[in-house]
Amino acid sequence: MKALDDIMQKLKPKADGKFPLAYTVWDGMYTFLFVPGHTNHKGVHIRDGIDLKRTMVMVIFALIPALFFGIYNVGHQHFLAIGDVVTGDHVCTLFWDKFIFGAIKVLPIIIVSYGVGLGVEFIFAALNKHAIQEGFLVSGMLIPLVLPVDVPLWMVAVATIFAVVIGKEVFGGTGMNIVNVALTARAFLFFAYPTKMSGDEVWVNTSLEEGQKIVDGFSGATPLAKAVEGGQEALINMNASVMESFIGFIPGSIGETSTLAIGLGALLLLLTGIASWRIMLSTFVGGYVMAMLFNLWGANPFMELTPLHQLVIGGFAFGAVFMATDPVTGSQTNTGKYIYGFFIGFFAIMIRVFNPAYPEGVMLAILFMNIMAPLIDHYVVSANIKRRLKRVSVNA
Amino acid sequence: MSEALFSKKNMKLIKDPLNDDNPITVQVLGICSALAITVKVETAFVMAMSVLFVMIGANVIVSLLRKVIPSRIRIIVQLVIVASLVILVDQILKAFVYDVSKQLSVFVGLIITNCIIMGRLEAFALGNKPGVSFLDAVGNAFGYGLILIVVAVFRELFGSGTLTFPVIGKIEILTSLAENTGYQHNGLMILPPMALITVGIYIWIQRSRNKKLIENH
């Protein structure tokens, strides 16, 4: 570590030198590796052992299970489609082939997302003459995980630029954004290029080499699309029972399929206290309540799905764990967090069931509640003030 | 009239609304129609022309009548004048450019409620002579039209890959790219929210270039 520190100090360019961008990049890299040696001298600061960069890295660690599972599942779905693997054979055949195939498909998306996003960040940091903000560390990983595997790389690049510039930089950079950056990128792609972001074609990579062919009766549809058509029965037929969907060998966005892997990440986030358990819990409760109401109503096959099944298909778990708990865009007050999370779950299932054109209700629900979060906080705070004022008047 | 109509001071009435005092990007008026009809350059152009006509007519007429209109009912009088002009425009559009008129649909009628027109009548025509009111109307209508056309160019080019001009017709620019390579038209560009974002980006660029608009708090 000392040696690395020495090298970094030697490389340090002058802040006001010829290349301000060089210093920005160096500063970003150095503070990524080491806790900076200087402290603030002005204003009030709450001291904590963990700074923003280290917080962000924790979230990346939490994403790793979902990422690896996603990579493996991309391969699994592909070999399932071309018939090299039979349904239900999850790990026995072609384990490494699946993994390598998945990595070849997924890594470019991650590289593009990080490369473009950090590029935009560097440019803004140099233009505004401030240090590189670390907000993109997490967004850069979240963006690939919420996209289908077949999304063209240039679309990832365009969406990332849009999300970082319009979603974040115009509001003042990291910590100032109103809506979740990664979801902005996804929403942009969803509305801009619907053919590459929805439908049955994009979720499973079906690129064929010579001598390969797609198996009969193959459908790349996600459980969400199947559930709209045939409800519970269709899901069982496509081998997406509650248990199967929970483990995650189903078509879907790269990182969203496995509730199990997401759960591991959630555990880490909760143990370290980085994500709010209030938001996570209330999101699942909200989703469960709405799904239960629909289940009781039962007007169509999709509504008849059991609540538990609703929570394990689609991006619900991923959204609830990694997107809804974004500390910048979520509610800040504790009571507000319950309300905020509850309505995310509530609306996610509602949009999903009522409007099959937008199967991924959780994306829209989170974006919507992001915008509502300051309002919720406002009323929570003013209710608190009112409550306490009452106490004052009684004593006086 | 002691001052020449095209004096330097009066020319400012035309120039200011184009940049420093643009009705859409600086005063943020009339953005409703800017969001609705900027999917194609052609519709944006026809809309801009319609507003130009209504604005000049209304500004000059109100300015002529400014000493006669009782101030308590001035809004009603202004609305009657604007509404008559709008009906006139609507009929002309239906007669000569029916297709565009159909695309503009209700938004021609909604020129009556265009905030820029009412704003200029209230703020300028009621207190100034017809000559300068005319210039003010021209300036503001051009400022409005400029934004409309800039936004429409971006939205149509990236949304559908074409540029549709009146008279010249449709020019296909990115369509061959979309057919031969993996390029796809951006569907979001056609949706109204993107008009808002495009106007927002315009304001961003304009404010960072124009020193007068930078607010110092």
What's the gist of this structure?
The complex is a heterodimer of chains A (396) and B (217). Chain A is mostly helical.
Largest sheet of chain B: 2 strands, antiparallel
Distance between the termini of chain A: 62 Å
Largest beta sheet of chain B: what is the strand line-up?
1-2
> Which two chains share the most extensive interface?
A-B, 13 and 12 residues
The rounded Rg of chain A comes to: 23 Å
Helix content of chain B: 55-70%
> What is the H/E order of chain A?
HHHHHHHHHHHHHHHH
Share of β-strand residues of chain A: under 5%
Q: Write down the overall mean pLDDT of chain B.
A: 87
- Mean pLDDT across all residues of chain A, rounded? 84
Oligomer: heterodimer
- Secondary-structure content class of chain A: mainly alpha
Give the overall shape of chain A: globular
Q: Count the helices of chain B. How many? A: 10
Tell me the layout of helices and strands.
The complex is a heterodimer of chains A (396) and B (217).
Chain A: H1 2-11, H2 20-33, H3 52-81, H4 95-128, H5 136-145, H6 153-168, H7 181-192, H8 194-197, H9 223-237, H10 242-247, H11 259-272, H12 277-297, H13 307-312, H14 316-323, H15 334-354, H16 361-395
Chain B: H1 8-15, H2 31-36, H3 41-64, H4 74-96, H5 98-104, H6 106-109, H7 115-123, H8 130-160, E1 162-165, E2 169-172, H9 175-180, H10 192-209
Antiparallel strand pairs in B: 1-2
